[in-house]
Design brief:
2 copies of one chain form a homodimer. Chain A has 341 residues and is of the alpha/beta class. Chain A folds into 3 domains: 44 residues, 434 Repressor (Amino-terminal Domain) (Orthogonal Bundle); 131 residues, Rossmann fold; 132 residues, 3-Layer(aba) Sandwich (Rossmann fold). The first copy, chain A, is 44% helix and 15% strand. The first copy, chain A, contains 12 helices and 12 strands. At the A-B interface, helix 4, helix 5, strand 2, helix 6 and helix 11 of A face helix 4, helix 5, strand 2, helix 6 and helix 11 of B. Strand 2 of chain A pairs antiparallel with strand 2 of chain B, so a sheet runs across the interface. The first copy, chain A, binds a DNA duplex (16 and 16 nucleotides) through helix 2 and helix 4.
Chain lengths: 341, 341
DNA sequence: CTGAAAGCGCTTACAG
DNA sequence: CTGAAAGCGCTTACAG
């Protein structure tokens, strides 16, 4: 006996292969009795549809790719869950590629995704260096949806947030609380657009409120808890303690709080700390973290929907959605006397 | 001009398609000059290898699948990162499927993975109900590697830990600290083998040390921070406060600590709390979390290596690796007078 | 060291 | 409502 493919099912059911395919995809087009014959044959033979063959035939896979630095960042978990929710009950699957903060790995990933003829790619994070590669991907017929930011390039599909504005507002909030010596601990703003926007928002808010930026209080690092700790220690080593710290991710903020405590400072009594992301742990840190809420789940869901849509039709314009963010006040920031440090 | 496939490259280089394929996969077999001709043609035409066609031809895809409940659980992030690390620089990619604690979704996922003719599947979490489906997957030629536990079925490939033992030892540790009224907040031990093993370890350790199990102090729930909070509240509502709480995941433990604090209890002064997993936040909670360290990254790495190996050869026996766990003492548990509550 | 040829299992117009 | 036929772009023995 040969393999159990559509041809085998067709023979067993006494119909043609085309009919089997029709029964599977557009059963309405087939007479009920014929349909029944086919279903029975499928059951009897234990036939398993071959998606690889189908994808190959259609010259495009039914897989969507996701590019992230690392899965180890709980805000991405929300995005992934949102994507999965949207892909649920569709023919699409999700391939995840970790670029590990490395531009070369990222390029390799993009190449792999092209070779796999993915139906679409969602970008959670890329370095600036690979913007062009992504544009090429798009031009090569693989729709590419960038999340987390609204790119400067208006032709790029984005489901993002306004990092500049969110950061500006959070900084303004700190200033309004009376803080003047404010530290900024962010990601690699030298290489990542979204992080740079946050930094710019921070700088502009300070400037607009007549607060001097002390560059000794600014650190760019990878966004893990441990890196947040180290960044804060570095600041404390060379500087007088700041009155507030704006950490550009919650993981960093948790690390910052930890190192401040270990250095003998209370949060928020001595130092106010705020984050960015609003991860699921944020309400449960000590003190609960004041942060910028980012709708990660929704971002993932919309990005997946967009990727699927773009893969199926070639309507003209770029999809650009800017989702709202908001400041969530919890307990990690407090008002101070502006003259105080 | 037609599509740029191997045939086109072959024509441009003045060789046959077989030779192009050889240059790409086993360049040693081709004369250097011929090789050069082919590389030039590839460059000139901008040829992109088509993995879908290759997978189709080989009747097996170069994709490995992962089944998890949700990405929203930071210990899984370690596993995913481990898998990705191992897949790096291989031809394999990772498809992730979320089963969302739902047996039907999980079955659907398994079906999809079969249809995609995946090269292998790594199981992070499944409900007991779908054990048979997984066995069928394996029999259908898709090697299936179960992580997080050593299955009772000895023919099943496992890269796991000894949940029973780890849980037994942690419970013993609590008893040794003098605790007698110990609560257990775990996952759905009615439906998940690994969770059940942890619960059994807990029960047996109590029994072996002559401590009575108070079933009012046992709750099974989904393992999120919020669920941990709710579970603890539920316990406090109907019972006198326990002296210690063993949460079978760190996320649960963080929720437990939060609800205890909100109810006016100090940790560990009034109640000791320990977790399971050792997520990256565990050292930075207040107090730092005493927990069972699980080598998630390594587990992912080994699982990926096993899946690849199993997909390539059909060596006989089952791969079964039990990784060691250890208790990490931080600040969330303290010794008490055994007579105390 | 290289080429010709078969075949992987579907989908998709097209014809009837 | 159904079938015959071409073709998607590779890989893999086999022959030379």
């Amino acid at each position: 006996m040969g393999r159990i493919d559509m041809h085998a099912v067709a023979s067993a059911a006494g119909v043609s292969q085309s009919t089997v395919s029709r029964v599977l995809h557009r059963p309405r087009l087939v007479r009920p009795e014929t349909r029944k014959l086919v279903y029975e044959a499928i059951e009897r033979l234990g036939y398993e549809y071959n998606s690889v063959a189908a994808d190959f035939n259609k010259q495009r896979s039914s897989i969507i790719g996701l590019i992230i630095f690392t899965a180890r960042s709980s805000i991405h978990a929300d995005v992934i869950d949102g994507i999965q929710e949207e892909l649920q009950n569709t023919k699409y699957s999700l391939i995840i590629g970790n670029s590990r903060y490395n531009a070369a790995t990222e390029r390799e990933l993009i190449r792999l995704f092209r070779q796999r003829r993915l139906s679409g790619v969602i970008v959670a994070e890329t370095t600036d260096e690979n913007r062009d590669e992504l544009r090429n991907l798009e031009r090569a017929g693989v729709p590419t949806v960038v999340t987390w930011e609204m790119t400067e390039d208006n032709n790029c599909h984005c489901i993002g947030i306004d990092n500049y504005k969110a950061s500006y507002e959070m900084t303004q909030y700190l200033v309004t609380l009376g803080h003047r010596r404010i530290a900024f601990i962010g990601g690699r703003y030298d290489r990542i657009e979204r992080v740079r926007h946050r930094y710019q928002g921070f700088c502009d808010a300070l400037r607009d409120h007549g607060v001097t930026l002390d560059t000794g209080l600014v650190v760019g690092t990878t966004p893990s808890v441990t890196d947040g700790r180290e960044a804060m220690y570095r600041i404390l080593e060379d500087n007088e303690v700041p009155s507030a710290v704006f950490a550009a991710s919650d993981a960093l903020a948790i690390g910052v709080i930890s190192s401040l405590k270990d250095s003998g400072y209370s949060v928020p009594e001595d130092v106010s700390v705020c984050g960015f992301d609003d991860i699921d742990m944020a309400p449960f840190t000590t003190p609960p973290l004041t942060t910028v809420h980012v709708p990660g789940y929704k971002m993932g869901k919309l990005a997946a929907a967009s990727a699927m849509r773009l893969g199926e039709s070639t309507d003209a314009g770029a999809i650009r959605v800017c989702l709202p963010t908001s400041i969530v006040e919890r307990g990690s920031c407090r008002a101070v006397n502006p003259s105080g440090g």
